[in-house]
Design a protein that fits this description.
single chain; 233 residues; alpha+beta; Jelly Rolls; Arc Repressor Mutant, subunit A; kinase; transcription regulation; transferase
């Protein structure tokens, strides 16, 4: 890995590892088998460390155990485009591990100090061959990663700030709920939606005055769901 210092795999990190969707629902005996048979290394990462760089190959399963990553991609015009923020504990770049083309489409940079676990793709593949439940879990996670990318591109396809914000809210809204717990603060959210923070703040304030939403911190209540849906139709 890129200039990162190895650290010990503690019980705390083992517990965090088994919180990620890839491993979370596996039987306990299989979890113990994973720890024994995975060829993995744990790294302490520092703020601004490049964890993985765009256009390099994904050769290892990567799991962020602590910290946050910013994911950016350079487009054809050499413009840096924010893709997403990754918040631990979470595996990332999973769909690229076994693709024919394993080239990463973005750069993953640490936003704060954290901990990263990586495992060789050979050891991951060997375990998936032996454990059907792990293979099924991997396919589900890889599918969800593709879905998240599609949802982000859909949000950015809208031309105005309100539409992008509403699309984002419905992306994170749980089924049969009118309350949305968002992952980003307003600075991060403005970057994510490719708008300026003051413009986003003004639009959110307008929506609150129109009683379309109420917002406190990172919790948003959708007050008029039908009306909000019309914004993104």
């Amino acid at each position: 890995m890129l200039n990162m210092e190895q650290t010990d795999f503690t019980e705390k990190y083992e517990a965090l590892l088994f919180q990620i969707p890839l491993f979370r629902d596996l039987p306990l005996n299989i979890k113990h088998l994973l720890v024994d048979k995975l060829d993995f290394t744990v790294y302490a990462i520092k703020k601004n460390d490049i964890v993985a760089r765009q256009h390099t190959h994904c050769k290892r399963l990567m799991v962020l155990l602590e910290g946050r990553l910013r994911v950016d991609s350079m487009d054809a015009s050499d413009n840096e485009v924010l893709i997403e923020y990754i918040i631990a504990p979470r595996a990332f770049a999973t769909p690229y591990l076994f693709k024919l083309d394993t080239t990463l489409p973005a750069t993953f940079k640490a936003m704060e100090d954290g901990v990263l676990l990586t495992a060789t793709n050979e050891s991951v593949f060997r375990l998936m061959s032996e454990i059907p439940d792990l293979l099924k879990s991997f396919l589900g996670v890889a599918g969800n990663c593709t879905k998240c990318t599609d949802l982000r591109l859909k949000a950015l396809s809208y031309k105005n700030i309100r539409s992008r914000f509403v699309a984002y809210l419905f992306e994170y809204k749980a089924e049969n709920s009118s309350v949305v717990k968002i992952e980003h603060n307003q600075v991060e959210l403005a970057d994510y939606l490719c708008v300026t923070r003051p413009a986003l703040t003004r639009e959110i304030n307008k929506m609150m005055k129109e009683r379309l939403i109420s917002m406190k911190g990172k919790t948003v209540e959708l007050l008029q769901i039908a009306e909000l849906k019309r914004v993104i139709l």
